[in-house]
Amino acid sequence: MRASRGIRATAWGLVAAGVAAPALRRRLKLPPPVVLGAGFTAPVALCVAVRRTRARDVAVCALNMYAYVAAYEMPHDNPERLAARARVRYPAVADKVLGLGVPPTLRLQRTFSAPSTIKRFERVLVWCHWLWFFVPHLSVAYVLIRRPDKFAGAAARMYAVFDLGAVFYWAIPTAPPWWAAAHGRLEDGEPVEVRRMMIEYGEEFWGDLWEPLYDVLGGNPLAAMPSLHFATSLMGAHVLEEVDPIAGTVGWTYAITLGLALVYLGEHYLVDLIAGAALTEGIRAAAPRAAPLAKRLGRQLDRLQALGEKG
User: Fold this and answer.
1) Is the torsion defined by CA of 164, 83, 213, 205 positive or negative?
2) Cα–Cα nearest to 254, from 281, 276, 234, 282
3) Which of 64, 216, 220, 248 is deepest in the core (most CB within 10 A)?
4) Residue 311 has pLDDT above 70, yes or no
5) Per DSSP, what are the bridge partners of residue 174?
6) How large is the average pLDDT for residues 59-70?
7) How many CA atoms lie within 13 A of 28 on its CB side?
8) 3-state secondary structure of 22
9) How many CB atoms lie within 10 A of CB 94?
10) Which of 82, 106, 258 is nearest to 171 (CA)?
């Protein structure tokens, strides 16, 4: 009985620590390993604390994303140090090669945009970018509703993209085109303009709400390689396709449109998207080999949960 209560109490304690550590990291000056360890332990601990239901599945995904957001933002807790570590040149050089002498962002903006004007199709691209904050999670939620038997695999693949992407943001912080242009480092030190239409249209559409919205959502401007916007949207298209062809078509249409938007709007280089696609396809390729280990881990967590419930 005491052991059972101890298991459950420990699990809930780990969940609480995983929620508290990211929120208090700046105030308590917690080391990043402590924050990340606590944050990514919490979803596992919840599987021990609570019997599996749809609500628990959603909560596990939410806790993972909560930990991911902390991992994504923490490098920018010290902006000067992050900027000093940021890679700026290599994606610009790669995109110059891919764009046959001109980075695709510059080629697209110079061809289709007009100064001081946000065209209708550009507003559509901006909205496509904004909607990304919901699309990966709605894709997984659709699987949960329509094919709950496929949910665990779909969620594991989707959130693996987020989590592994965060590793790259720590290891190789990389500047997007708009940042490189703003710092005079896009075209071999020559001044070049990259319009950031998301900002221009955001100020126009949201008015006074724009600054607080951007402060919340723009937590790390030097997290560009790989593009998790594109990687997770691509994974969303795959998991939707596994449920039904209509949902898959919607997912692929969105992913392709978002890819164009990210490059056109200067939010990502084309090479960032290629790296994001490689990350997604790598995870999909590795998933069958990882499945047996994941099932064994799941069974162990279920045993611990059952023991804790006896108390």
Assistant:
1) negative
2) 234
3) 64
4) no
5) 87, 223
6) 97
7) 11
8) helix
9) 18
10) 82
